[in-house]
Amino acid sequence: MSKLIRPQALPLSVLEAQYYVDQFNATYGDILDRGDYDAWVELFTEDCLYKVIPRENHDAGLPLATMALESRGMLKDRAYGITTTLFHAPYYQRHVIGVAQILNDNGSEIRATANYSVFRTKPGSVSEIYNVGRYLDLFLREGAGLKLKERVCVFDSEMILNSMIYPI
What we know:
4 helices, alpha+beta, globular
């Protein structure tokens, strides 16, 4: 019979990492749901990686991603494109991000993963599941908070409804 791990038995740093990552993810989802893409960019380090890749490619070690942004500058370009140049039928997003699993915390970096689902609602229509998968994250501790050095969004389906305009 396995022994239950009680939260009070965990080192405080593990609980702190869990708290900060979960709070970060809650903020991340809220920022995207409000459409504040400039604030989204600020959640990342300068030399970040943001990638959205199908599970099939990720599991096979294939590099082809639906979206791959390799710096904060590329994220800024994406945010500019979303708010200024892209024309599409409007819709709202709602992110539901599960409790993160802390994989490693060395004091300056935290590796974590969390399941996510993104719902899409077009005005005058019903909500639909847009994208489901998991985040594979590398956070850097900066001051009193965290910044994303890497966020790889591994989505489960082999197809995306229409096109991917907004970040996941």
